[in-house]
Amino acid sequence: MPNDSRLIFADHVGRFYARQYGFPPMAGRLLGYLLVCDPPQQTIDELSQALLASRSAITGAVKLLESHGTARRTRAAGERMDRVGLDPADRQPRNLDSAIHKEHAALFREGLALLTDAPPERRAPLEEMAALAEFLADRLPRLVDEWHTHRDTLRASGKLPRPGA
Fold it and tell me: How far is CA 18 from CA 3, 11, 44, 91, 116, in A?
């Protein structure tokens, strides 16, 4: 059973992910708990007990986190039940793929084509959204490169663990 501070942290993560990303609160709570639980892989029953939630609520949250590439299930040889933990591949920053922003820009430009004869104030929101998407698509590859260089420096100095550590 987790201590109260871990549950409070899980609740804080749950509220943040619900507010910022529209996650169901249980999915955010599960994510928060997986960040601090010990051992780092837990069964559905252990998660259900720890988070004071039903097995079905935990299973639904696990499925959602799996679909986002945040959590994954594993099963050791000889075990009869899955263990859920954070997906180690999920350490990469989200929404930094410039292709996504190029696609956003194209969608916004498609909308602007529908408003060709509209007054400027009607076109303004789409114009700005398209400009932002194009700006992000242009700048993000450099920012990701800078992050990787910075991360490697932190790893070399011992301030961040090396992969697999």
Answer: 23, 10, 21, 20, 37
Residue 158, sorted as left (phi over 0), alpha (psi -120 to 50) or beta, turns out to be left
Report whether 65 contacts 75 (CB < 8 A). Answer: no
**Angle ∠(132,137,140) on CA atoms, nearest 5:** 105
Supply the pTM of this predicted model. 0.76
* pLDDT single digits (tens) 5-15: 999 999 999 99
Residue 126 is encoded by which pair of tokens? Answer: 């789409």
Cα(21)–Cα(16) distance, rounded to whole angstroms? 8
What residue has token string 């490169």? 145
